[in-house]
Design brief:
With 94 residues, the protein is α+β, with helices and mostly antiparallel strands. The protein has one helix and six strands; from the N terminus they run αββββββ. The termini are far apart.
């Protein structure tokens, strides 16, 4: 469930940009007890996420995504998700 919430946050960042872009880099590795994925697009959107199964029942996830806001500022969201919820840290740059 938390994985889906975090993944949704990444997709919202892509949708927020509301423009077409090509994939510059992309990777993914999905295993039974851990995963990693990331991508970068030509419109400066980047995302990275990794997680692992803790005690065979709790997913611990961390990641970040970046995009350029409509007012031209770079936005970076770093987050963790665990049994206590989704914990984002949002930073804005010029």
């Amino acid at each position: 469930m938390k994985f889906a919430i975090v993944l949704l946050a990444c997709f919202l960042a892509v949708a927020y940009a509301n423009e077409e872009a090509d994939v510059v880099t992309e990777f993914r590795e999905v295993n039974k007890e851990d995963f990693r994925y990331g991508f970068e697009l030509t419109n400066k959107i980047r995302a990275f996420q990794e997680g692992h199964l803790h005690n065979k029942k709790i997913w611990i996830v961390k990641g970040q995504y970046e995009f350029i806001s409509k007012d031209g500022k770079q936005v970076k969201v770093s987050y963790t998700a665990d049994e206590y919820g989704y914990h984002p840290i949002v930073e804005h740059y010029k």
